[in-house]
Structure prediction request, 442 residues.
Amino acid sequence: MLTNLSVSEQNYIKSIYHLQQNSESVTTNALAGHIKTKPASVTDMLKKLQTKNLVNYNPYKSFRLSREGNKAALNIIRRHRLWEFFLVNQLQFTWEEVHEVAEQLEHVTSKKLVDKLDAFLGYPGFDPHGDPIPNSNGKINQQVQMPLFNLPLNTLAIITSVQNQSSDLLSFLSNSGITIGTKLEVKQKLNFDNSLGIKIKNKSSIFISEQIANAIQVNPL
Amino acid sequence: MLTNLSVSEQNYIKSIYHLQQNSESVTTNALAGHIKTKPASVTDMLKKLQTKNLVNYNPYKSFRLSREGNKAALNIIRRHRLWEFFLVNQLQFTWEEVHEVAEQLEHVTSKKLVDKLDAFLGYPGFDPHGDPIPNSNGKINQQVQMPLFNLPLNTLAIITSVQNQSSDLLSFLSNSGITIGTKLEVKQKLNFDNSLGIKIKNKSSIFISEQIANAIQVNPL
DNA sequence: TTAATTTTTTAGATTTGTCTAAAAATAATT
DNA sequence: AATTATTTTTAGACAAATCTAAAAAATTAA
Prediction:
């Protein structure tokens, strides 16, 4: 039942997915607000998505994505996050710039494109904001990713990505023995300047600034 | 007067551009055929593009892209060809697969995206089919590109791109001293198997197969 | 240069997604 | 529980892009 979805339908499905993350079921008003349209338009679209079996819709009561709808949403989100990763890590976009562009790229639906992009990027688990990227089967990495700066003290973690905004940073990190896959713990945090004392596994300790600690993403182990 | 163009308007503009390449002015029927729509729809759209000053349209007579329209077309074509280049050279698509996907990607209009993609790809002059890629000012490279196989005998040419479909090929070529920028001539062509005898400038001569000669793009000098 | 043919345009209908205003259902309040 | 307020849906209209069928213009042929 792989219907071709219009850009508009895709936007509704994606928004319902996101709103469902926070609360059990979604309201017409909330969705209208999220998607910048009017409640009446939402109702219209819900009826349409209902006939396509993408939502389970009880008029005046509630609605949720169906299993089908959920699958469609994960596909859209996969595309969005892969493109965000591409924009930041290959094209040198900054975090703030990517969302709008990825919003357009996500509607290019070629499965072959998405899977090849995924492979090209090295099957990343998280987008630049730290949100997980569903794999080609729609499975979401259950690990948690966070900036190294937010890692609790004395918690072993593994580096999963580094925002390569400047080559300065990259060379500093590689000289310090910090790359993707490096395991480390935060041993102390100086209140004076928010710098962190880092213990790299089987290696020496170093201090890094708050800025650097925020450019490094880690998974707690 | 940088109006935002709908996908549909973009498709019309692009098609008019391509049809104009072959004949002075374009007919309603030809455009309808090219765009897979009905003549009546073409007329409707022409009236719309006229009000936006993108075409010069004389009902029952003829129409052409205006200066504005031409600029818009070159922008669309730039995006299309850059994405084709990306798909083939980074994502390992084959020539035949790229068109359909690029057809969708070309409608993502972010100028920042396009210019960063261009830089990322190294400002390529030609797409994988050998068609020139307009630069960010809409200027088209006037050089000619062709497969090495089609280069006339004893004509000096420079290699501009290599289809990196297999790593076999790439390592063979680099071992033979053939990379982007290498200057060479074709000295002979064997009718038996269509293989070519190549003289690399300031270096030795080698023979390469028809297949390889078709994977190498050159500019005659 | 008329008549026949082809091309192009107009007129009116259709589909998709949206909107406003009014009606219906649900939720909150006294 | 009845009234008020809020939320949601319906009804009908609208814009964009398309279509069919008929009319108008241009072209070709007799």
Notes: The CA atoms of residues 32 and 38 of chain B lie 5 Å apart. Chain B has a mean pLDDT of 91. The beta strands of chain B are 55-58, 62-65, 146-147, 157-162, 183-189, 196-200, 205-208, 216-220.
